[in-house]
Amino acid sequence: DLQICQHRAPTCCTKKMEESYQAAVRRERTQSIQALNFELKYMIVGHITAFQEAFETLLRFAENRTSSLFETAYRPMAKEAAEPVKELFTDLSLYILGAETTVESAVLRFFDSLFPLVYSRLINPGITDLSEDYTECLRLTRQDINPFGRYSKNMVTELSKSLWASRMLSQALSLGIEVINTTEHAALTKECSKALVKMQYCPHCQGLTLIRPCVGYCLNVMRGCLASVSELDAQWREYISTLEYLTNEMAASHDLEIALTGIRNSINEAILHAQLNGPQLSATVDKVCGQPKQQQEGNLPSDNIVPVKEVTEAQTFMMAHASLNNKRREFINYMKRSRTFYASIAERLCDGDLVMRDSSTCWNGEDVV
After folding, report:
1. Which of 115, 138, 158, 301 stands the most exposed, by the fewest C-beta atoms within 10 Å?
2. How many CB atoms lie within 10 A of CB 358?
3. Which InterPro entries is this protein grouped with (predicted)?
């Protein structure tokens, strides 16, 4: 009653043993593919973590630099500006990690929050009535009167260019993990299971427990079993080329580090531009939002400011910058070597202990040759 290991000679196998063999080859094949995938997946996961840590270090450095701008140059508004600054960098971090947001919305939301502070603390420092309605009116007016000139738009352009490559790389690495996970659990067809049993276990039914498959026979069986997986070859090569392009983009003209450290200067220029145009802005705001209550000079509130440690931050930044550059190079060199991963998967599975290489006898699916 044997279905797979049918042979003219007497046999020690039963139909139930054949079923056990089919379960065994399915399990073994999954484990073999997992073992092949492990190194590749380990490298990608390790670099996702390393890139994200480097991004976070750079973002924290840029955030501290921006906070220190307010604490040294714009003390009257430093305390109130802390929250908008924090929100801006949180939004940028989420954008890099693939959240459904844009650099433009993050930057413009920041300038919307900044304008009421600049207006009430720097342009008209006597204002006391910052009610919710008045603040909201100032936020909305910012969009119409553009108090920060071209600097807000320039900041959007610079950051969009540099953060785009980082975001795409982040998403591409996650996609790579998905592809590898999918191939690990690719179901074997019934025909494939039978072919594997015939190749690996049918000799056992003849008492030939030490004989192994011939190399050519193994390759034919594995290529047939893994046809759907090896079809990924062209797309995988294209995927590696895309990763190479993105890492080059990050390192070249769209330099993430330069753009992030430039945020402080962009905001400073924007605030100076608003101050220079203070009288015109006040006239427009008074027409749109009305005149707020004024406080007597000399009674302006003062905030206690905590200075930022810039020296240690600069050292951390340099280390993160060097680390990110090294990671880029190391990662792309490794990924280039995995270009033929899916094309050569059958050869790699037939390597090692599975096949007979140095002996004159091997199993060809029917007999010992």
Report:
1. 301
2. 4
3. Glypican (IPR001863), Glypican_CS (IPR019803)
